[in-house]
Design a protein that fits this description.
The chain is an alpha+beta fold and 99 residues long. It is 25% helix and 41% strand. It has a five-stranded mixed sheet, with helices on one face. The longest helix has 13 residues, at 56-68.
Length: 99
Amino acid sequence: MTTAQSLKSVDYEVFGNVQGVCFRMYTEGEAKKLGVVGWVKNTRQGTVTGQVQGPEERVNSMKSWLSKVGSPSSRIDRTNFSNEKAISKLEYTNFSIRY
């Protein structure tokens, strides 16, 4: 890396058929592939929620994946993003599935 890339953090919630379809496992895999950190978990409301942090470009790629791709058997109706902000350092060391 040459210059410091601007870091970004964003919270997300994915609506649709996203539980019981390996969504969290695929989200973790995609995050690790892109090199972003954060977490993902199922909610009692039947959605998947979490947070992603990393270089802005990679976070944007993850946002796109969370909005349009997901796991092979999932159906994403919509994804809400909130608390999008620039951060000075990462708050996580990896990407994890929370229970």
